[in-house]
Amino acid sequence: MKTESIKNEAAKPTYYHGTKANLKPGDLIAPGFKSNYGSGKKAAYVYFSATLDAAIWGAELAVGEEPGRIYIVEPTGSFEDDPNLTNKRFPGNPTKSYRTAQPIQVSGEVREWQGHSPEQLKAMRDHLEKLREQGIEAIED
Fold first, then answer.
1. Is 12-133 in CATH node 3.40.50.2000?
2. In this structure, is the dihedral angle defined by the CA atoms of residues 56, 57, 60 and 64, taken in order, positive or negative?
3. Closest CA to 17 of 36, 34, 40, 33
4. For the segment 4-14, what is each residue's pLDDT rounded down to a tens digit?
5. Domain extents in the chain
6. What is the pLDDT of residues 109-136, one digit of tens each?
7. 14, 60, 131, 135: most buried, per Cβ within 10 A?
8. CA 44 to CA 29: how far, in whole Å?
């Protein structure tokens, strides 16, 4: 029984959340606040990923002048695949992106990470701007 518990812990993925908020271990990131994306409406979900690259995009594209930060997080409740990315844009869930209506808890921070090139950032921001002009929200609830 103990061995199975150890195996399950070892198989547990690491989850990340990219933002510009300055947080510390133990802090909760909860829905109900202004979204960092789209029109900035009240967020019904908190988004996180099991890939560092998806979290880097989150940190780089979040609104605000603060530096991007990537936190290691743990969901406190159930979660589902992020429908904004899965099957609509990418078959399956290759970005391993998720959303939850429950808080996620910060357990650490990734202090060293490589951001995207200025060209990649510009291309993504231009793409998001075109979607906004078409009335398409980046985040769909």
1. no
2. negative
3. 36
4. 445 555 678 99
5. 12-133
6. 999 999 999 999 999 889 888 877 877 6
7. 60
8. 12
Q: 3-state class of 53 per DSSP?
A: helix
Q: How far is CA 131 from CA 56, 103, 116, in A?
A: 21, 28, 21
Residue 64 DSSP SS3: coil
Other C-beta atoms lying within 10 Å of the C-beta of residue 59: 23
In contact, 25 and 106? CB cutoff 8 Å:
yes
What length is written for the chain? 141
Which two three-digit tokens encode residue 120?
């990649």
Indicate whether 107 pLDDT > 50: yes
- 3-state helix vs strand vs coil in the chain, percent to 5: 25, 25, 50
Tell me the whole-structure pTM to 2 decimals: 0.81
